[in-house]
Amino acid sequence: MPRLKTRAAKESLLRRVRRQRLKYITILPSLITILNGLCGFAAIVFAGKGAAAANELGYGQLALPYFAIAGYMILLAMIADMLDGRVARMSRSTSSFGGQLDSLCDIISFGVAPAFLTLKILEYKLAGFTEVNFVQRFIWLAAAAYITCAAIRLARFNVENEEDESVHMSFIGLPTPAAAGVIVSLVIFHQETLPELSAKNSQAYLICENTIIYSLPFLLLGLAVLMVSRIRYPHILNQYIKGKKPFAHLIRALLFLALVIWNRQAALAVIFCGFAASGFVKWFYYKVIRKREHVFQYAAETPNI
User: Fold this and answer.
1) What is the DSSP letter of 26?
2) Distance between CA 60 and CA 151 in Å, rounded?
3) Domains plus CATH for the chain?
4) Alpha carbon of 164 to those of 70, 154, 209: distances in Å?
């Protein structure tokens, strides 16, 4: 009899757990998070219209190309992604629901949208390429790898993340918004700044355009690896802006602001590409170069027996 009662109690507990429903959510942070996902969806829509509009109206005939609009939608999603967590922590309303919703919207805005944008712009620019089947397969493989690693990066972040703001000084692996920012900044630079260069120097325009276009699939693969790596990337706001900082940080911030005022497209490309490369360069220096120097120094100091 006691064993039957214990089994019945366990089954009753399982039924109560299954019937449990989410009763309360935080409205404002959740709305900002949903705005993130909607911006990602809008980016996908505009990216799909980009190639069709270019074929019908002619390349560069739109005041703001659809590919560039898609890029700006992803940038707007980044702003929403920064605000939702900040608002939730300020109102002390962080929850597991908000974290899961944030990751679902992030995979749309910073996983699917940048990969789809890359696919569409490459399909349009490489339409006359002779080895189109091989190139298309490689581009699809790069985009699939990017989306897969973005999903893995977000899932790992959910498992390892701590809600305490004081521990958010660095990220393990390249954050998905930063990875998307590399692709988006280059696309915006290609769509808005390069056409101005074509009127001044056609040769320089062709070199820059080919460099950006042909590097996009390889960038997708490289960013995919960086997202799932264990390379540490700094939290810019917490490490360099928030709280009391040295005077040199103010000088750097002013230089970045001057670059943004001079040319926002070039500034976006420099900031995002520089951030993505900085983590890898530091890791390579400390793990490979410094380690090799220590080995050589130890070998030189060790007497031969």
Assistant:
1) -
2) 34
3) 24-159+171-235 (1.20.120.1760)
4) 34, 18, 44
